[in-house]
Design a protein that fits this description.
By secondary structure, the chain is of the alpha/beta class. It has helices at 9-13, 42-47, 58-64, 68-80, 98-112, 142-160, 180-184, 201-211, and strands at residues 24-25, 52-55, 84-89, 124-128, 167-172, 192-193.
Length: 212
């Protein structure tokens, strides 16, 4: 998938039949419609060909005062319009204590998934993005990533009462040309979520080629 700015969605739409990609948007509003000047609804991004929407990125929390409760409303909204939610989740600070790390993630996921029922033909993608690793030169280490993804996957499947095919867990947070292969090769990791390394098209394509 590729998740460009809203202003580029209609451009990508022209090429969706020719490119092997799924198009996504970076956010949606939590209501169907209303007097919300400047906001983008789920129906708007769907009309542009989007099948995925990114929700809950750390920057949305930091700069736009979003909350876990709001993300829950947006997940519900995305599913209502048959758009796959790509939900970011991660701890603020590095925490070598696995049990404490789980406590924080469990609390957040419990709010994200409140009152959500996932039908058998729908799926959800969780992007494990430790906030302390976003935009840095170094990603979380492989063991740290693996054990955290394990917890997120098991807890989420149980909470949502879904089968394993309805959930994908991927890693994001300083993924680059140097570490992409090692991260993608983590057995329980379903993929990588590339941010800054995707700004340069050549770097992005190089990572794609390395993986394929």
């Amino acid at each position: 998938f590729i998740i460009p700015p809203f202003t580029s969605l209609s451009i990508f739409q022209k090429y969706l039949n020719k490119l092997p990609i799924i198009l996504g948007a970076q956010n949606i509003h939590h209501e169907d419609y209303g007097a919300y000047t400047g906001e983008i609804s789920a129906s708007m991004i769907k009309s542009c060909g989007c099948k995925i929407v990114e929700l809950g990125h750390a920057e949305r929390f930091e700069y736009f005062n979003e909350s876990d409760i709001l993300i829950n409303k947006k997940i519900i909204q995305a599913l209502k319009y048959n758009i796959t939610p790509l939900v970011c989740v991660g701890e603020k600070k590095f925490n070598s204590n696995y049990n404490l790390r789980k406590q924080g993630l469990r609390k957040k996921l419990n709010i994200f998934f409140k009152n959500i029922t996932l039908k058998k033909n729908k799926e959800i993608i969780l992007a494990y993005e430790p906030i302390w690793a976003i935009g840095k030169s170094k990603a979380a280490n492989l063991k740290y990533i693996s054990e955290t993804i394990d917890f997120i996957r098991v807890f989420s499947q149980k909470k949502l009462k879904i089968n394993k095919n309805q959930l994908k867990v991927i890693y994001g947070g300083s993924v680059n040309k140097k570490n992409a292969i090692n991260i993608i090769n983590i057995k329980n990791n379903d993929g990588i979520f590339i941010g800054r390394s995707a700004i340069n098209a050549r770097d992005f394509l190089e990572i794609c080629k390395m993986i394929t």
